[in-house]
Automatic annotation (TrEMBL), chain A:
PANTHER family given in the database record: ABC TRANSPORTER PERMEASE PROTEIN YPHD-RELATED-RELATED, XYLOSE TRANSPORT SYSTEM PERMEASE PROTEIN XYLH
Purpose: Part of the binding-protein-dependent transport system for D-xylose. Probably responsible for the translocation of the substrate across the membrane.
Source species taxonomy: Bacteria, Pseudomonadati, Pseudomonadota, Alphaproteobacteria, Rhodobacterales
Species of the source: Gemmobacter lanyuensis
Superkingdom, natural source: Bacteria
Protein name: Xylose transport system permease protein XylH
TrEMBL record, chain B:
Source organism of this protein record: Gemmobacter lanyuensis
Gene3D superfamilies cross-referenced by the UniProt entry: P-loop containing nucleotide triphosphate hydrolases
Pfam families: ABC_tran
Keyword rRNA-binding in annotation: no
Record CDD domains: ABC_Carb_Monos_I
Annotated ABC transporter domain residues: 10-251
Protein name: Sugar ABC transporter ATP-binding protein
Amino acid sequence: MSVLSAFLRRPAAGSIVSLIAVVGFYILFGGVNVVTLFGAASWLNFAANLGIIAIPVGILMIAGEMDISIGAMIPAGSMVTAIISGYYGLPIWVAILAVVGVGVLVGLVNGLLTVNTTVPSLIVTLGTLVALQGIVLSVSVFLTDSVSVALEAPPWAKLAFGQLIGGSHQVIILWWLGLTLVFAAFLHLSPIGNWVFAMGGDKVSARNAGIPTRKLTIGLFMVSAIAAAFVGMCQTIQFNSAQVSGGMGYIFNAIVSVVVGGVLLTGGFGSVFGIFFGTLTFAIVSQGIYFTQIDRNWSNLIIGVTLLIAVGMNESFRKLAMTAIRKKGTK
Amino acid sequence: MEMVHTAPVLELQSVDKSFGPIDVLHGISLKVHAGEVLCLLGDNGAGKSTLIKTLAGVHQPTRGKILMDGAEVSFATPRDAAERGIATVHQFGGTFPLMSIGRSFFVGVEPTKGWGPFRIFDRKKANDIAVKAVRDFGITRIDDGDRLVGGLSGGERQSLAIARAVHFGARVLILDEPTAALGVKQAAHVLRIINEAKRRGLAVIFITHQVMHAMAVGDHFAVLIRGAIAADFRRGEKTREEITDLMAGGETMADLEASIDAQERRHA
């Protein structure tokens, strides 16, 4: 009993229960073959690409901020890679450095605008999202006369960022798993992780406690921008070409994953493993439907219902964590 | 009475504070010694929160001096005041309801273990110290540092915040209406904690508009009306009725009752 109640108080509880419920639903009502579903790569590839972006966005949300400019950072990362290494033929490592550089720059702009104005970061990053789309399109057309550029990456870069393992699983899945552990260590083990929660709980008190809230906010924006650019780069190396469009779907998908994962929209509460399972849940709902006999037109309905149920569960589990006080002498 | 010979831990000398053309505080002079509770009484709008913010370094006095241990000081930021040992605890205590007791206790000063870039937050140490600090103040119901602050009662949250301030070396404790939102039992709880802080030699500034609570723990009282000190007296020098009358702005409770009666008769 105490194990169960301890589990339900974790921020990840809602997303794990949702994941089990969704898989159960598909098996019972969709006639899914479990072996086929778990052997398939489609939802895992989908989850990995989304998850690498969802975690830093979720950490920003825990810190009380929001970043939707990631929607433009994905094509930005793609185009930077393809233009530098494909169009101009420079070594791929130059492109990788440039991808990180663009991420740092966009994160810096988002961060500076957020900490120096009272404009909510949702609006700030809405502005930079649209602006960045314009820049990516204009610069691409100006430099290459095209909205799509081909790239032939060298074998080592293919191996690291863009190969298929076993012919179906993208190598980015390994990046996702590794980065999940790195982000989890940062948020839950490092002292700076504690600052993130404090900042999301009460920014003024956090600043008075000596936390460098400005630097930390800017740093977190940089990480989310780099993560989105990284995914764009991997996709370009994987598919040997880059397009200026695309990426917008990631904005909502990342937010759904983060919220299903138990992160409080107003900040101060959440976990990396919650976001991880939230992403998995979202991936299985949206990609797993192809393995069922359910008409795929229903998938958005199922996503919406899953989101509402998961948020409802997260809400009640969080209340449980707040109010349930273990009486003395009971364990 | 050797206390008379030591300088007060914190003293204000003729402090004025205005915001542009608006004068909020005029000629405030106050002292608080170690091991003493100064009760600052006043109705809403009397200037209590401006005074607290001036003591805590949020505002700087327009005129006048702030002294600590007899030497003049100036606080540019709340950080400055905090570094000199002035801690403010607000009405709702801990401000991070969704953080664990151990984590919120050490926000900004996290204990770590390990080395170099692999230093990690020492959860067990943080929890042990936080739980011990608050239990030493007599809150024995708290035994698990992993519990969320939001799960504690109002009185326990106040106690946790006070224990935290004391643990990090506060010398002056400013308590802003700590009992205002609490029931009778919880308030008694917080008053006990105030006595314990006093026993440990802290200078306590207790802001309240509840005369009973002030009289239960106060050594020294100051009544604030429209930004000025209207009365300054020691324990036992005034009765509860006299203090209530003072807070109402010189108008006695009896006058007030008479005017309400008269009004009711007119409308009857």
